[in-house]
Amino acid sequence: MTPRLLVGVFEREEDVLDATSAARSEGLDIVDVFAPYAVHGLDRALGLRPSRLSWVCFLLGLFGAVAMLLFQYWASAVSWPINVGGKPWNSLPAFVPVTFEMMVLCAGVGTVAAFVWATGLRPGRRSALSDLRVTDDRFALVLRESGSSFDRAAVEAMLSRYHAVSTVTIGEADI
Question: CB-side exposure of 19: number of CA atoms within 13 Å?
């Protein structure tokens, strides 16, 4: 049997925040929350850890800068040293602009790639949202109906306390 998902659709962000906090405190399995824009406090309501993308960005930028410095030093002082006007072969101030550009390039492209990989956003992925207005002006809380202890009527009553516009059941394979 395919696990099913219960989707509660809300009109206001305060309602979805309160419903998410209530569902988490009741121990329900929250799959995701969909919103048309970033909702302040939703990460705390879901109990999410802080993102590690800032560390990924920092490390990729550091890698790009160090790799470019090493490459420029190798190219100008080791592989093909040319004495131009008595200047040193390993002139660090000359390396700064290219090093900065490579740092920004590696950090930016690498962070976007890490974000796409971590979130599973793939080309051609089909979304099966129950209410097409979720991307416009609605909010959706998706709960997994896990186990025989899941009382659908009680969960729907809890969602209606927080002004759910509709509740829909879909298969997990659809999302």
Answer: 31
